[in-house]
Predict the structure.
Amino acid sequence: MAFDRKFLLLSAGEVLVVAATDLLVALVLQAIVLAVFLEDRRGYGVFAVGIAIFAGIIAASGNVLLPLLGLAAALGCGYLALTLQDYRIARWAGGGA
């Protein structure tokens, strides 16, 4: 079985992220590892800013649970917005929802 070289290098980078004992360092390493392997970087700026804000909130609060709950709430709201937008497009196109 042949493995893709990019996949193996990305996996090695993820090992570094997991090996980091500090959560802030892990978040920064995650952004760097992902940036190296992206071919289309259109949304990377938003991702990097989001990680920086999330890392700042974790550093300011000193607690991980509350920022993770906030992140989960934001992701849930984003999913809900995308689902409603898909529903509106389906209704506008005349298809059944």
